[in-house]
Specification:
The complex is a heterodimer of chains A (811) and B (667).
Chain A lengths: L2 H15 L8 H16 L6 H4 L1 H12 L5 H15 L2 H9 L2 H6 L13 H14 L3 H9 L2 H8 L5 H17 L4 H9 L2 H20 L4 H17 L4 H19 L5 H12 L11 H9 L4 H13 L5 H18 L9 H11 L2 H21 L7 H15 L10 H7 L3 H14 L9 H13 L5 H17 L4 H19 L4 H17 L4 H9 L2 H8 L5 H15 L8 H17 L3 H16 L5 H4 L2 H9 L4 H19 L11 H17 L1 H9 L4 H21 L8 E3 L6 H16 L15 E3 H7 L2 H9 L3 H4 L2 H13 L10
Chain B lengths: L1 E4 L4 E4 L10 E5 L2 E5 L20 H4 L17 E4 L2 E4 L4 E2 L14 E3 L9 H7 L5 E5 H20 L12 H6 L14 E2 L3 H8 L2 E4 L5 E3 L3 E7 L7 E6 L4 E6 L21 E5 L9 H17 L4 E4 L5 H15 L7 E4 L3 H10 L6 H7 L8 H6 L3 E4 L5 H5 L5 E4 L9 H8 L6 E4 L6 H5 L8 E4 L8 H11 L3 E5 L24 E3 L4 E3 L9 E3 L1 H5 L4 E4 L2 E3 L5 E5 L2 E5 L11 H9 L10 E2 L4 H10 L5 E5 L3 E6 L4 E6 L3 E5 L3 H13 L2 E2 L1
Parallel strand pairs in B: 1-3, 4-8, 8-9, 9-11, 15-16, 16-23, 17-20, 17-21, 18-19, 18-20, 21-22, 23-24, 26-30
Antiparallel strand pairs in B: 1-2, 2-25, 3-4, 5-6, 7-10, 12-13, 13-14, 14-15, 27-28, 29-30, 31-36, 32-33, 33-34, 34-35
The chains are: A mainly alpha (811), B alpha/beta (667).
């Protein structure tokens, strides 16, 4: 425990104990508790009370005070629990009667406090904190605190109700903890207490499930799910036998509002050994839910079943049928007859808008998971794909079949939710091998979506994603290029002129991704140029919307990497000219960031960008003087690539350089200096934006390591002109401080800093800077100052000092 | 359509088939009301375009003769792009004028400026002598559209009038689609400006919610319909009946005042016309499509041609482009609006502030012009010219966007641009008006290299909006064109594109007569004060009193008044006169009216008292039957009648009657 903090603790306790003083907000109290918890988990914190009498005093004052702020009281409850989690502190607190006072609300001086939710919450939290050892468990059982906990299960505050579940789960688990603990428990008279409390809890849970009140049933189900998740064998099975009967009744009630909660319980039980024990009847329960009167319940249950491993085949098949039913029904694809009842059940719910859309989207999203994970044995993927395609057509009003399902169609037409979901599924279906021959159908419907003027921008984006996926599996046939040339590109050209910026943006992004995917394909590159797409991209560079310009920059950057640059130097020059204009003049930072990223990617690529090479020094200087820190970081990334390519250095391999190498390296270093790279790094090193200085520091370290390995001290002959540089002053200060520290010189504060020479060797300069230290400091987030326990305590004390006069001035 | 509403029965007839260009007649009480008189100009598509500048292509077209040579109409019909067109001034299809003597029409109610284009045909040649009611913007813009139409026609006079092809025998032998044109004999050439002026002189201006009395019988009120400047729906009501006429309404937020829906509530009959012609196209999507195609063409260096009417959607298009231009880098592209009435249309739109949506109205108080096209004109981005001749030709700069009429592409300045730009694939024609099939419109210009985009923008109600509206206003009966009761023929599976109502709507078609499904039950009658004073009401139920009245009913100008009966003048004793006086019906005080119900138990008791003891009571659906077994008589007691049945025993009947009467109240 830091000594600074410990010295502040007594005064903090005094402030908290005094109800007349202004209190800090409860987040600082929470943070303080966190600190206590952390300290106690370390060895020196075990005996905190004997060393910190102020804590005990604070708790004592709480027990005696007649007027206590609920926030502080809640804090005190949690703290008591926390302290009592160690056996010796527990004994001490019990001796002083504090535990009895705190955890039996009937003893409180002010019974009204219980009405406050934060106090009830503190009570539960304190209890949870305390229940860590046998004595605490005995205390809990003897005092019959479980009664109150169970009562709180139906508290109107959701947080309290959920905390109750956690406390009960923890208690039940603790009764089964370790073997020796068990043996102690068996021999001690307490064991009977524990067993009876455990039984009480289980009976209570079964009763809740059988309640007439829905709210009680719901909270019972929630609790069951939590407890089943957390508790161990054999407790889990014991509990299951208690609740199975009411649970079966609930499952057969087919009440839609309970579905989600029953499903949560089933999900937990299905992933536990309960599932394979026939007497636990988990499978039967699932089947009951699957055959529910409520189609939504059935579909949800089916989705759950199909996520299970080792699921019995019959159940799995049933679930698959249920899951596919909404999709196949709407698209009139019949796989196998389900019987009239089943059809009418779905039909009824599919003809109502309110149930139709969720039913279909649930079905679709589960299908995507299902098909992509493992192919279905008896259902052809092609059939599913064609159904999804039909559904997509229906959503555009393009489907012509009988009028039989007209009621369903009318609310699917133009429904964005279903469109988005279906497009997602269609996209993921592209990954299935069986779909190789459905490419044409899929692309046709996707193009239809691009053509439709009413399609929502988000739907268009999904369409783009799906097209990308299908293109990536296509064998590059002539037909495909025809489609791209005659259908796709004209549509994209139109979308680039759309009034909605989202559409323009996602279209440009799509062009970029498509180009990246099909980069190696000469036919594609040919089509891209023939259709005038490049000039479209150039025009989009002057879009009014910054995001769109950024996407245009990225797309253009990608496109130029596909071109045979020897043939298109003019194109390259034009692009570089445009991008430099953006970097200099654009008022939005997104396009400028994109420009830097494009330049970096060009440098990384194997192609030669002569037009860029000529302008690198101005790119670096523009990037370093940008107002946006992200642009600077991207500039540093560019510098990184540049360094790598010129110095060919790798931080992880150690070379020994020959003297001939050294001349080459000297030349390279000279070149970097001429480009202004060192100036950039040093300037960024002293930036106040942490990511910038961190990155610059990392690069300088890399450079330093490289230089140390390459040259012995002072032999690099590379000198930097430092006078007139923006960073020279800062640099000087640091060097001077370091010197001062080293030499313990007795210069006084007012003394002039000596002039630094105009030129300094790079090697010396790097050595002068304490780069490792700088890196450590910048790696710490600003959080470490603000959230330190010391600062929290100071905040508490500061808040207490405030009187009404100075409260206005603060901050 | 003619709808007769008779006092006891309602019937209907129908004349016009076009659901968006309606012409209906409603007979209601003693008035005959024409609802709109739209002109179907689609017939112009059968004619050759009228070029403004001499076109060698159009002048050299070969004439048409049947293959066997029996029919030769080389002068009247020309072959162009594989189709046959009539070479004369275009003719229009009028509303049916034979079904009803239109001189009997008392008033014409106009709902919007597109629905009044046939007005001169009706008011000038049928003996019509009534009044036309319309709002001011409807009147003014309607005048502009008629003026434009007349100018388009008169600018390129064509002496020749083609009539031979209309001969039934000959028409049968013509190639399609001419062969299938219907009612060709009723097609008429365009009216003259003089006829327009005369027709418009019969218009009386009204404001929204203004109540206009027609002969004291009915009251008509225009309500905002939200479709175009000054567009209205009409309420036609008497004291006890209400008919709503909904024509061309819109719920979208465009420039006009929003639609007044609440006043349509509680209608007995709602006549629904003028729904969107393109139910599958959402106006927003189409507007987006319009803008992106326009931008794409301009960026590629091409010109854009927008054939449109000179008022209406063009205001929204210009507003949309105003916002879109900068984002699409179209700042320097000139927009031209060419129409004989372009200037007036743009200026009129700015002065009808009270007819605009709230947003635009509030601009007027800033003060700012409500439409942004004022700024476009100020900054020289939008220029308008009466025609391609004169100033325009010297200032014309490409690439550009041209808005011009007529959307049928058969007359107006648009014909010139089709000839000029049709050959280049860089140019684009964007159709925004939904009235004409764009493929038919383009037929005489084939082969066409120009790109063609169809973005019909129809802001009128779609089926989804209509069903919501009807749910809201809940009319007892809906009457609509038959096209609305089934899905469009091309999309027979789209059951969402039709009206599904309970009870099903009554459908009509051209030349049908419809009896409206409700009977008029009541008429309002006034009591003169002295008569009212003389009434002696007696309360029969708490809050309800009745009185008998004897009076003379006077009906005049559809108003009914009850007056006191004139007292007979004392007659001088003269034998001659006495005989005369006897013929005047004697004014007797009426017999008292009976009311009330007979309590069974009390009645039985009183029978018992009168010595009738053997009574068997039988319960029936409406009341009771009492068998008086000893007397061999029956008394049927029902809710609204009592019968005493006994054979030839008048004293018994009278006794029983008196017993019954004891329980009833007399008025």
């Amino acid at each position: 425990m830091e000594s600074d903090c410990l010295s502040l603790l007594p005064s903090v306790c005094k402030v908290l104990a005094n109800p007349k003083l202004l209190l800090p907000d409860d987040t600082s109290l929470e943070k303080l508790l966190d600190w206590f918890r952390e300290s106690m988990s370390q060895s020196y914190g075990k005996h905190i009370i004997p060393h910190q009498p102020s804590l005990l005093q604070f708790l004592l004052s709480v027990t005696t005070s007649q007027e206590m702020d609920p926030t502080v009281f809640s804090f005190a409850l949690k703290l008591t629990g926390l302290l009592a989690s160690k056996e010796d502190s527990f004994n001490l607190l019990e001796e002083k009667g504090m535990l009895q006072y705190m955890f039996e609300p009937d003893n409180w001086h002010k019974l009204d406090l219980w009405k406050n939710a934060s106090v009830r919450c503190g009570w539960l939290q304190g209890l949870w904190n305390m229940l860590q050892h046998q004595q605490a468990m005995d205390f809990f059982c003897k005092r019959d605190l479980v009664k109150l906990v169970l009562y709180l299960q139906n508290d109107k505050s959701l947080f309290i109700a959920s905390l109750t579940n956690q406390v009960l789960a923890h208690f039940l688990n603790s009764t089964m903890l370790s073997n020796d603990f068990e043996s102690v428990a068996q021999n001690s008279p307490a064991s009977t207490d524990w067993a009876s409390v455990t039984t009480k809890v289980m009976i209570h849970m079964a009763k809740s499930l059988a309640s007439e009140e829905q709210a009680v049933v719901l909270s019972g189900l929630r609790q069951l799910a939590v407890v089943l998740t957390q508790c161990r064998e054999p407790l889990k099975e014991m509990l299951w036998t208690h609740v199975l009967e009411p649970l079966e009744l609930l499952a057969n009630l087919h009440d839609g509002s309970l579905t989600q909660h029953i499903m949560a319980v089933l999900q937990v039980s299905a992933r536990s050994p309960l599932f394979i024990k026939p007497e636990c009847r988990v499978e039967a329960l699932m089947e009951a839910m699957l055959c529910s009167r409520n189609a939504n319940t059935s579909v949800q249950c089916a989705a759950l079943i199909l996520q299970l491993e080792n699921c019995p085949e019959t159940l799995e098949r049933k679930a698959t049928n249920v899951l596919l039913h909404p999709l196949l029904f709407v698209t009139s694809c019949s796989l196998q007859p389900h019987g009239p009842d089943y059809d009418s059940l779905f039909e009824e719910q599919l003809t109502q808008r309110i149930s139709c859309v969720p039913l279909i989207t649930q079905s679709l999203s589960s299908i995507a998971d299902l098909v992509c994970k493992s192919p279905l044995d008896d259902i052809p993927v092609r059939l599913i794909t064609l159904s999804v395609i039909s559904l997509l057509r229906i959503c555009l009003g393009h489907h012509s079949t009988t009028l039989q399902k007209a009621g369903t169609y009318s609310h699917l037409i133009g429904c964005c939710k279903v469109q988005r979901c279906s497009l997602d599924v269609l996209g993921s279906l592209a990954a299935c091998k069986e779909n190789a021959d459905t490419v044409h159908e899929a692309l046709a419907v996707l193009l239809l979506y691009l053509q439709c003027p009413d399609v929502h921008a988000t739907v268009l984006k999904k369409t783009h994603q799906a097209i990308l996926k299908w293109f990536s599996i296509c064998s590059p046939s002539t037909d495909l290029w025809k489609t791209v040339h005659h259908d796709l590109f004209p549509l994209l050209k139109k979308h680039v002129c759309d009034g909605r910026w989202e559409v323009r943006d996602s279209t440009l992004e799509f062009i970029m991704q498509l180009t990246a995917t099909l980069k190696g394909n000469s036919k594609y590159v040919e089509a891209l140029h023939d259709c005038g797409m490049v000039s479209v991209l150039f025009t989009s560079l002057s879009d009014v919307e910054g995001y769109v310009r950024a996407s245009a920059v990225a797309a253009l950057g990608e496109t130029l990497t596909t071109t045979d640059l020897q043939l298109s130097t003019s194109l390259q020059e034009e692009a570089v000219k445009h991008l430099l204009t953006i970097l200099t003049e654009d008022t939005d930072s997104f396009p400028r960031r994109a420009v830097m990223k494009v330049f970096t990617s060009w440098l990384k690529s194997t192609l030669v960008f002569t037009a860029l090479d000529h302008t690198l020094s101005s790119v670096l200087s523009l990037g370093s003087s940008d107002f946006d820190w992200e642009v600077k970081v991207h500039t540093l990334e560019l510098a990184d690539v540049l360094m790598d390519s010129l110095l060919n250095c790798c931080p992880y391999s150690i070379h020994t350089f020959q003297s001939s190498d050294r001349t080459g390296i000297k030349q390279a270093l000279n070149e970097l200096m001429v480009l202004g790279l060192f100036d950039l790094l040093l300037k960024c090193l002293f930036e106040c934006d942490r990511p910038v200085s961190e990155k610059a520091c990392a690069l300088l370290l890399k450079l330093q390591t490289f230089m140390r390995e390459t040259f012995s001290a002072g032999h690099s002959d590379l000198t930097l002109e430092i006078s007139g540089c923006s960073w020279s002053e800062e640099m000087l200060q640091r060097c001077y401080k370091k010197q001062q520290g080293n030499e313990s010189n007795c210069m006084k504060n007012g003394d002039q800093v000596p002039d630094l020479p105009k030129k300094v060797g790079l090697f010396e300069l790097l050595e002068l800077l304490d780069l490792e230290d700088m890196q450590y400091i910048s790696s710490l987030s600003s959080d470490h100052v603000i959230n330190s326990p010391q600062s929290i305590m100071e905040d508490i004390l500061f808040a207490a000092q405030q009187s009404e006069e100075n409260v206005v001035d603060c901050y | 359509l003619i709808i007769f509403m008779l006092k006891s029965q309602c019937r209907r007839y129908c004349l016009s088939g076009h659901p968006t260009l309606p012409c209906n007649v409603l007979k209601f009480k003693s008035t005959t009301i024409m609802l709109d008189c739209g002109l179907d100009t689609t017939s112009a598509l059968y004619f050759l375009p009228l070029p403004l500048v001499h076109s060698s292509r159009l002048s050299k077209l070969p004439g048409w003769a049947s293959k066997d040579g029996t029919v030769n109409l080389e002068k009247e019909l020309k072959e162009c792009a594989g189709r046959v067109f009539v070479d004369s001034q275009p003719e229009f299809c009028l509303p049916e004028v034979e079904l009803l003597d239109l001189s009997t029409v008392d008033v014409i109610l106009i709902s919007n400026y597109h629905c009044m284009m046939a007005l001169p045909y009706i008011t000038e040649h049928t003996g019509f002598s009534g009044t036309v009611y319309a709002t001011e913007p409807t009147f003014q813009i309607g005048r502009l559209l008629m003026e434009e139409l007349v100018t388009f026609m008169e600018r390129v006079p064509k002496a020749q009038s083609a009539t031979c092809w209309k001969n039934k025998e000959i028409q049968r032998m013509l190639p399609g689609p001419l062969k299938d044109a219907v009612d060709v004999w009723s097609w008429k050439r365009c009216y003259s400006m003089q006829e327009v002026n005369s027709a418009l002189s019969k218009v009386q201006l009204v404001g929204y919610s203004q109540k206009v009395e027609l002969f004291g019988a009915v009251q008509v009120t225009p309500l905002s319909s939200g479709y175009s400047l000054g567009s209205s729906n009409w309420i036609i009501q008497s004291h006890y009946e209400k008919v709503s006429y909904v024509s061309g309404s819109s719920l979208l937020t465009t420039h006009p005042q929003p639609m007044d829906q609440s006043s349509l509530k509680n209608s007995d009959v709602l006549i629904l016309t003028g729904l969107t012609q393109i139910p599958t196209a959402n106006p927003d999507g189409m507007l987006g499509e319009f803008c992106s195609n326009l931008a794409m063409t301009i960026r590629a260096g091409g010109n854009v041609l927008v054939p449109c009417y000179s008022s209406g959607v063009i205001y929204d298009l210009l507003e949309c482009l105003y916002q879109f231009m900068d984002s699409a880098n179209l700042g320097t592209t000139p927009f031209y609006f060419i129409s004989p009435v372009a200037n007036s249309s743009l200026e009129f739109s700015q002065i009808f502030a009270e007819w605009l949506c709230q947003n635009k109205q509030s601009k007027v108080y800033l003060p700012e012009p409500p439409f942004p096209h004022a700024e476009l004109i100020q900054t020289n981005k939008l220029k308008h010219y009466p025609s391609i001749h004169g100033e325009f030709s010297s200032e014309f700069r490409q690439p550009c966007v041209v808005f011009t009429g007529h959307p049928s592409l058969r007359f107006g300045d648009v014909v010139h641009f089709m000839e000029l730009w049709g050959k280049s694939s860089l140019n684009t024609i964007i159709f925004t008006e939904p009235d004409f099939s764009y493929l038919d419109a383009l037929a005489p210009y084939q082969p066409l290299a120009m790109k063609c985009v169809y973005c019909p923008i129809d802001t009128r109600l779609n089926f989804h909006q209509v069903s919501k509206l009807l749910k809201e206003v809940q009319p007892l009966h809906v009457v609509c064109p038959e096209q609305y009761t089934q899905p469009p023929p091309a999309q027979s599976h789209r059951s969402d594109l039709m009206l599904e109502l309970q009870p099903p709507p009554m459908a009509y078609r051209r030349c049908s007569v419809l009896g409206l499904p409700f009977r008029r039950r009541y008429e309002r009658i006034q009591l003169q004060p002295e008569l009212a004073k003389a009434l002696v009401p007696s309360e029969i139920k708490p809050g309800i009193s009745v009185a008998t009245v004897s009076a003379v009913l006077q009906s005049k100008d559809n108003k009914h008044v009850l007056q006191p009966v004139p007292k007979p003048t004392p007659v001088p004793p003269s034998k001659k006169r006495k005989r005369l006086m006897e013929e005047v019906p004697e004014l007797l005080s009426p017999k008292p009216l009976l009311s009330g119900s007979i309590p069974l138990d009390a009645f039985l008791a009183s029978l018992h008292k009168s010595g009738i003891t053997e009574v068997k009571v039988e319960e029936t659906a409406d009341g009771h039957i009492l068998h008086l077994q000893a007397e061999d008589a029956l008394i049927q007691l029902e809710e609204d009648a009592t019968h005493i049945v006994c054979d030839n025993n008048e004293p018994l009947r009278t006794a029983l009657r008196d017993l019954v009467l004891r329980f009833l109240q007399k008025l």
